[in-house]
Design a protein that fits this description.
homodimer; alpha/beta; Rossmann fold; seven-stranded mixed beta sheet; six-stranded parallel beta sheet; about 25% helix
């Protein structure tokens, strides 16, 4: 089988030279272990930080180690009483075609998928971390109430392409997305359930925000951070909630170039909240989240958009593409 | 009777010339109204914003109007079935010796005090807005858990002088206060239940924070905002909570001079929360809060510190003193 290992550490954005595609034997399994065949692997911006050991919640990665990553897989052989061949699982598979999994080890956060009537690829997106993240941000952190106004940045991305649907399912009124470029902005309105789109690359964001939110912003789901968040602060309503989900505008910038926020006092004036969160702090509720999202998909309230590359060999390209804003929807690579 | 009216609007910090002490007749009461005699009046930084009509939750104040303010009073005459002469009440009395109160008008937020075995002055502090604010910030917003590390700024002020006690009552471990000057810092440790004190006027705040929080900060109760908050962000732990209670460092500064926050990204890295709150959003729970705080006072867990000036004529001085950092403890004026 094939697997991707870390060849060297990136300086800023990764390049293809930081990865090496290797041959390796299909693993042998022991007691209470599974052999699984990878169906899809996801990519997430945080993976760049895995490569430099800057993500405290992930195990250190040495040169030559298989790249960390979650995916959805089919059980081929099981020596664990809770799993059988043919079961669909999510786990930290790593960037490889087959993986040995110890479901009892909490690090791998392995679980059997519940809603197997839906496509396996949803085990990367809507029924996995990006869907859970959209749900947690809108429902647990922002507690969207029917009729509220909602803004999402990075709205065409993996999480953002679901956040608008989630807001709407919770009863939000005006739901506006920010994305880069006319194609993505068009997708927001025609495919992703947004009422309006703002193109941060070609439009004046402040003016467009004022135009789209004449009565202010109740909820902001932020995937971007930086200047746009600072502008949004000027328009928040009393007791507004801002979910800080990602900071893609700053991941590649040195600390000295990080945005300095001038409008933070608006939080105080408006008795508002700015809260960051992490999907893995909610593992105890993943089964509940999977079922909620699966039901919304069946009811047509959530229509997952996927950006699928074909073949394990395209993993580095898929990750780098996130930073170049190439994907609309949940980025993934089909392996099996 | 005497009352203070707005004589002119302040430009920056108020001066004595912005107020005028007048004579007025004791009010006559109608059906479902009370005549009360003011015992104590409180002062709060926000009153400066009342004078310029910048506090959206308060009624506009015209030149010649009686200054807005809450106090504790004794009922002298009642034409309301729920109140009798001798009852102790809290209400928006205004800066006057006697007031007519309509308890049914929610604007005045009038309620009968429950714990009348305790001194009437506590109806300005620990059993009123400043005590409730300390409790809400620590318990509802920050949800202090036993053993957590807690920092409070403005720790010798009306709210801060109670926040340390509240944190300790909730089981906090290391509780550190920031205040200005050696006298206040000494009070924090000898009188106000803090484990350590940082003097922002004479000490290097960053170094002292690092020294006092070798394992990071779990909870920050912020009465000050600005540069100190930015420093604190560098030391917050995973899932830290910051309650934004006041911004006294900026109330008198033009927007252009407000602090620009460089370290806000730390919220994202640490999955932390920054939340502002307003005591009047919790009115439905004031009776519960009063009883909790009264019990802590009886148990010796909360030892209220009061800064009492004598006589209605000293109201302007009491308010201006808040901005000059003159008070330690809850600032109030004894009237009756």
């Amino acid at each position: 089988m094939r697997q991707w290992v870390l060849a060297s550490r990136p300086d800023g954005l990764a390049t293809i030279d930081n990865f090496r595609l290797e041959e390796a034997p299909v693993p042998e399994i022991g007691d209470r272990e599974l052999l699984v065949r990878t169906l899809y692997l996801g990519v997430a911006p945080v993976m760049l930080r895995y490569m430099t050991n800057e993500a405290s919640f992930e195990r250190p990665l040495e040169i030559g180690d298989v790249m960390h990553g979650r995916g959805v897989a089919e059980v081929i052989a099981s020596r664990h009483p809770d799993f059988r061949p043919g079961d669909r699982v999510q786990s930290k598979l790593g960037w490889r075609e087959y993986a040995k999994i110890a479901p009892d080890d909490p690090y791998f956060l392995t679980y059997k998928m519940r809603n197997t009537d839906l496509p396996a690829s949803y085990g990367i997106g809507s029924l996995a971390m990006s869907g859970f993240t959209a749900l947690i941000g809108m429902r647990e952190i922002c507690q969207v109430v029917p009729g509220e106004t909602v803004l999402v940045s990075g709205a065409a991305g993996g999480v953002g392409s679901q956040a608008g649907f989630v807001a709407r399912a919770l009863g939000a009124g005006n739901v506006v997305g920010i994305a880069g470029g006319p194609e993505k902005c068009s997708l927001l309105m025609t495919r992703l359930g947004y009422d309006a789109a703002i193109d941060y690359k070609s439009e004046n964001v402040r003016e467009k925000l004022e135009e789209n939110f004449p009565d202010g912003i109740d909820v902001y789901f932020d995937n971007v951070f930086g200047e746009v968040l600072d502008e949004v602060l000027l328009l928040i309503n009393r007791r507004a909630r801002i979910a800080l989900c990602g900071r893609i505008s700053e991941y590649l910038k040195p600390v000295a170039e990080h945005h300095a926020f001038r409008n933070l006092g608006r939080l105080g004036l408006q008795d508002a909240k700015l809260e960051a969160f992490f999907v893995y702090d909610y593992t105890a509720r993943f089964a509940e989240f999977e079922d909620i999202l699966a039901n919304w998909i069946r009811d047509g309230k959530l229509n997952p958009l996927e950006h699928v590359l074909e073949g394990l060999e395209r993993m580095p390209e898929a990750l780098i593409g996130l930073y170049e804003g190439r994907n609309a929807g949940v980025a993934m690579v089909r392996i099996g």
